[in-house]
Design brief:
alpha/beta, TIM Barrel, about 325 residues, eight-stranded parallel barrel, three-stranded antiparallel beta sheet
Amino acid sequence: MNWLYLPILKWKRAEQDGLIALPDDITDKICPVIETRMYQNSTQELYQSIQHYWSNKPLFLDVATPDGLILNERFERLRKVLDYIHQTEDQYLKVCLWSQFINSPFSQDIIEQVNQIGCDVCVRVRVTPKGVEASLQKELKCLERLSLNKRQVTVLVDFSSSTFNDPSYIPIISRTLSKCLKDFPGLVAVASGAFPKTKQLNKGFNLVQRDDLAGWLELSDITNMTFAYSDYTCHDPIWEDNKKDKKGGGGPTPPIMRYASLTQWHVRKLTSAQESPESSKFILEDKERVLECSCLGCYEIKQRAYNPSARVGNYPKHLTDGVIHHITTVIKKNLAL
C-alpha cells in the first residue's frame, strides 16, 4: 500500500463524476475513503456504481454512521460487502471500520469474518487535538483484535473538523503519533477537514487558510514519520451527514463552494435562491486563479467563464470541478510530486 492521499468522499454523484475524470497519474496515487452516510440504494447498486466510477482501483468503504456506529441495516450491509469480497476475491474493494466499533462487543462476528477473509482494512480513529494523547492510545488497542498481517491495515487518524495546526497542540500530537505508531508496519494517514463553520463566513467571497494542510506538513516534518495525507476534499466533514439544517427548518444546508490553492481556500458562500447567479460570479471573479491550473475541472470552469453560451452550471457541477481540482492540487502541488 503506497498511496499518498486518502480523500474522504460521500459518494455523491458529483464526486463520482469527479473521480472518473481523473487521469491515471493521479488515480494510481490515491485510495478514496467512501462514506455511505445517506446512501439509500441497494448494496448491489453500490457495487455497480463503484465498478463504473472507480473500476479496478482501491477503495475503502465506510458504512458507519457519522459517529462510527454500525447497527441494523448498516450491519447487514457490511456483512454483504464482506461476503462479496470473499466470494469474488475482489482485491480492490476494502472496508473501513472505526476503532470504537472494533473495540465494542457488537463487532465480534464482523471481526471474525474480516480475520477469516484476510481483507485489507482501514481502522479509522476519531480524535481531537486536546484529547489525542489518551484517546489514541486507548482506541488503537483495537488493533489487537485484528489477526491480519499489520501491513494489510491502514490506520486513519481523523481530526475531522478540528484545527490541529496550533503551537500548543503540535508537540503533543507528534509525540503521541510517534509513541503509538512509530513501529507500525502498515500505512498511517492523518486526516483533517478543519474549516470555518458556515455562520463564520462572510457572504460572497472569502480567503481561508488551509490549516489542515499546514498542520499535516508540520507533523510530517517534526515526527520524522511518513504519513499519507487525508482530507475531506472541497467540503466540510459533516456535509451530507444530516440533510436537515440545525434550525429545524427542513431545508438543506446552504452550499459552500471552495477551491484549493497551495495554502488557501477560495470560498464562496451560497444560498439556494442565489445559487446560479452567485456561481456565475464566482467563476468570473476567480478566473485568473483557475488559469494557473491545467486539470479538467479548471478547464470546465474556464469554458464556462469565457464562453457566454456555456451553461453556468449548478452546485453539483461545481462540486465535480472542485473535486477534480482539489485532488489534482494535492497530488501535483501540495505533496510536491
